[in-house]
Amino acid sequence: MEDVIRTKIDYAQVDRVLKDLLHIDGSPVAVKFVTSEDHLPAGVPHIGETITHCQMVNKARRDGAIFYATNENHACMGGAWAMGLREITATLKTGEFYYKLGKYDSWPSCKRTIDRIPHIQSGATYATAYAPLEKTPFDPTIVLIITTPKVMLKLAQSSLYHLGGRLNANFAGIQSVCADASAQVYLTGAVNFSLGCDGSRKYSGIHESEMVMGIPAELLPMIIEALPVVVGAPGSS
Prior knowledge:
Blueprint: H1 11-22, E1 29-34, H2 53-63, E2 67-70, H3 77-82, H4 90-94, H5 96-100, H6 107-115, E3 127-132, E4 142-147, H7 149-160, H8 176-188, E5 192-194, H9 198-203, E6 211-216, H10 220-232
Antiparallel strand pairs: 1-3, 1-4, 2-3, 4-6, 5-6
Helix pairs in contact: 1-10, 7-10
């Protein structure tokens, strides 16, 4: 059995609007948090290799790959934990991992950061599935977009077009694609922006000029409805 969104969304049309109006490089990436083996998307193949979540995102974004990955396919322990595929490791939980990498002045400052990393309950995710948005064969949980800050501006404005208010980007410079743009977006139901982390920039093709945005799949129709208006507004640049 596959879980689906009851409101039908034309993902190919969403992709066309994003690419036609924003000229983004590569494809938006559909990501699904699969809760059990019974919910694996029909016909989607197993990845058959072990790489990081951000590398998996890049395979869908750049290569058009469609696949799912289980716990053993995720090379990054922190990413797999953030997305609910496994328990947190002892060195990550205590702060030792990032402290030894020299990213924090003290062990407590590292621990404070780790304790606030958005993460799905361990074991709640059986697998993660990936596809370029234009040909996704499943309803995604979230959609990831990697693009320039100017394009992110239009996406941010489109996110606020109907209801207004403020956007609150939440990130820490670590676990950008897995925790900030994926787990947090799933947990909160709100868009989030992140700057990319050292690992994702080194291994997954995120350029110096790009950042990351996560969008709950349910919000896609609202954003896509607003985007042409926002891009075509007299004050838009």
